[in-house]
Amino acid sequence: MSESTVSHETVTVLGSAVHVARVHGRSAPVVLCGGLGSSWHDWVDVLTLLGEAGRTAFALDRPGFGDSEPRRGEVPTVAGEARRIVAVLDALGLQEPAVLVGHSMAGFYVEGAARLDPERVGGLILLDSSVEKSPGALIPRRLRMPAARILARASSAVGLQTIGADAVRHLVVRAVPPDGYPPERIDELRRLYREPDYLEAATVEYFVYADLAVELNRLRRRTPTPDVPVVVAAAHTSHPTPWGARWIRKQQRLASYLGGRFTVIAPSHHHVMIDQPVVVAQAIDEVLEEARRRK
């Protein structure tokens, strides 16, 4: 699959340089937000398909991930990442309500954006999104955040990050694009996973996960459910397991709570956009069309 339609640019928003991989088209904008440790590389096949179909879309790298500038000392919040999404739309001159696609824990961020800036959002797609009904953390945040930074920096300093980068990528992602990874993409992913700033950003985001879930649940209690087309898509490997069935039920409840449509994408690992880019692109097209009809 060719990625010749994908262009790259950097915009300065909220005090830092944010990298976006972008395709230009004639649709309402589509924003692709990856989960923990994700970058634009995970969306390249979906972006290419959207570009070939004449859609306007971009994948953004959060600070410290991909090719975006790190924000050392900053701790992610749902409200902060929601503001970043809207700020990038503004910086790119995209004012039409956007369809936001959030994978894994980025589901928190895109739902937050729809609740905090409803006039800027025309639809939501939650891809195997994180779901937490009653989140909580045993260790106080004031201890967790310093521990996250110490752990990440120590791993980089002693060489564990360099040694284990490939294994961690394989263990965490597992998904493989339909046409496989070209050698240059493997080299680039290896470079990114070995960056100390990347490891620190990913570790901090992982350690703050419970706080993000609490923040979103509080936001849900004081804001209305987004009045836009919503699709909740759960990944399934097609191998029945008790934990897989439990995960499907959680995703179904999330779809019901948001008043959205539920679907299962199979066979797929957690990184649905890598395993099944055609299906993800089709889901985006459907939400774009429904949002257009609702205008």
TrEMBL record:
<keyword id="KW-0378">Hydrolase</keyword>
<protein>
    <submittedName>
        <fullName>Alpha/beta hydrolase</fullName>
    </submittedName>
</protein>
<dbReference type="Pfam" id="PF12697">
    <property type="entry name" value="Abhydrolase_6"/>
</dbReference>
<dbReference type="InterPro" id="IPR029058">
    <property type="entry name" value="AB_hydrolase_fold"/>
</dbReference>
<dbReference type="InterPro" id="IPR050266">
    <property type="entry name" value="AB_hydrolase_sf"/>
</dbReference>
<dbReference type="GO" id="GO:0016787">
    <property type="term" value="F:hydrolase activity"/>
</dbReference>
<feature type="domain" description="AB hydrolase-1">
    <location>
        <begin position="30"/>
        <end position="283"/>
    </location>
</feature>
<dbReference type="InterPro" id="IPR000639">
    <property type="entry name" value="Epox_hydrolase-like"/>
</dbReference>
<dbReference type="InterPro" id="IPR000073">
    <property type="entry name" value="AB_hydrolase_1"/>
</dbReference>
